[in-house]
Amino acid sequence: xxxYKLLVWRIAWLLVAPLKQLLVxxxxxxxxxxxxxxxxxxxxxHTLGPDYIVLAYASPRELYxxxxxxxxxxxxxxxxxxxxxxxxxxxxxxxxxxxxxNAVELARSGKLIGMFPExxxxxxxxxxxxxxxxxxxxxxxxxxxxxxxxxxxQKIGKDWRPWRRTEVIVRFGSPLYRQGNGDIxxxxxxxIMLAIAALLPPEQRGEYAHGAPPETRSSLPxxxxxxxxxxxxxxxxxxxxxxxxxxxx
Length: 249
Description:
By secondary structure, this protein is of the alpha/beta class. It has helices at about 5-25, 50-60, 75-85, 95-110, 135-140, 185-200; strands spanning about 25-30, 40-45, 65-70, 90, 110-115, 145-150, 165-170, 245.
């Protein structure tokens, strides 16, 4: 595992690790797709479970997340913790240009940006129609998008029987790299979501089970352009190749 640079992340990892041993049996696949250095957007599905914690724990590098602006107004100590952990505010329901630009600058400076393109939690764990923010950030920053899927997190804490741990899987897919401007953001978003869907079991693919939703469907290329020899990144390829599988200690 690569070393976390932020002190808050190191402390959080130490706190989460023993809870994980008690509650979760975690398997991580496709770590080879997460770049060892350089910026990228990690785009993941979003369920009612602690997806952001599971994804962050599985990632070999810190993820910089957006969080609703109200969280930064609750208490000064919480604000310092959030900022120290790389979390930055976004005003949901508004076109928060400052937050998007902050994400772009972070990605350009070599950081990993964790995003949930659906913009809200899915109550059924099936994919819902995504917003274009993740694609826009990646396009403007000139960085790839790494599709990711968290499977089973919504079941954590539901079964308290002794020695019963919830099986959770985190999958990282091949990087998707596109060049262009905001005009292709919807098309790129559809490609990203189809790549995420390919990492999920069929029952969780939701609106992307049979391609892009009709209201957003565009002429999608059969393959993506993968950066730095990332290999096959066809949207129909599923988890490309034989991804590295690791069970986190």
